[in-house]
Amino acid sequence: MANRLEGKTVAFLATNGVEQVELTEPWKTVEEEGGKPELVSLEGGEIQGFQHLDKGDTFSVDRTVADADADDYDGLVLPGGVANPDFLRADEDAVRFVRAFFEAGKPVAAICHGPWTLVEADVVRGRTLTSWPSLKTDIKNAGGEWVDEEVHVDSGLVTSRKPDDLPAFCDKLAEEICEGRHEEQALQTAGRGAES
């Protein structure tokens, strides 16, 4: 594979309960593409990964979200797992961090339950995305359009439904981060800020 992400740093926002494969596979893709992944979390130390409902490995945190700045990254990945995004969406710093990527027009990739944090950050209104099916109503209630697709791209926002979609998800997230800033993403988010 070409080094599409050479010189780019990608934030992975996750905490305890993250679906392990949804963290490790995109992480591996970023590394293989020449990029630098960094694990951003709610607290320092380590986070506990899960393989569905069973404990998996632990992963070392590079930076806490309170100390992280979207300006330092070229893209953001939001892995799923049921508990992980539920913890993230309850944290003001995490929600602010996610929203900052949209305001800057930077690529964001969210898989499975990951879009829950997007709903909390109020960045799905007017967007089309996919997710784990149980999030469909939340996404619609937040003003988004939900589709049942392996991977969907909407102006720099990459979403997928489940671990089986990871090959397509990883390829598209590398492509979108490689492309850089997406003006439409920033404009849509700015428009929402003016409305609220």
How would you sum up this structure, described in words?
The chain has helices at residues 20-32, 83-89, 92-103, 115-120, 136-141, 166-179, 183-195, and strands at 9-13, 18-19, 36-41, 46-51, 54-60, 63-64, 75-78, 108-111, 128-129, 145-146, 151-154, 157-160. The radius of gyration is 15 Å and the shape is globular. The chain starts with 8 loop residues before the first strand and ends with a helix. It is α/β, with parallel strands linked by helices and 196 residues long. Strands 6-3-1-7-8-12-11 form a 7-stranded mixed β-sheet, with helices on both faces. A 3-stranded mixed β-sheet has the order 2-4-5. It is built from 7 helices and 12 strands. It has a single domain (9-189), classed as 3-Layer(aba) Sandwich (Rossmann fold), CATH 3.40.50.880.
At a glance:
The protein is of the alpha/beta class and 196 residues long. 36% of the residues lie in helices and 24% in strands.
- CATH fold name, please? Rossmann fold
- CATH architecture label: 3-Layer(aba) Sandwich
- Kindly report the name of the CATH homologous superfamily: Class I glutamine amidotransferase (GATase) domain
Total number of domains? 1
Q: What is the N-to-C succession of helices and strands?
A: EEHEEEEEHHEHEHEEEHH
Helix content: 25-40%
Characterize the largest beta sheet: strand count, sense, and whether it forms a barrel: 7 strands, mixed
SS-based class: alpha/beta
Number of helices: 7
How confident is the prediction overall: mean pLDDT?
Answer: 95
Give me the Rg, rounded.
Answer: 15 Å
Straight-line N-to-C gap: 43 Å
Strands, count: 12
CATH class: Alpha Beta
- Given the C-alpha coordinates, what overall shape results? globular
Low-confidence stretches: none
Q: Going across the major beta sheet, what is the strand order? A: 6-3-1-7-8-12-11
Approximately how much beta-strand content do the residues carry?
Answer: 15-25%
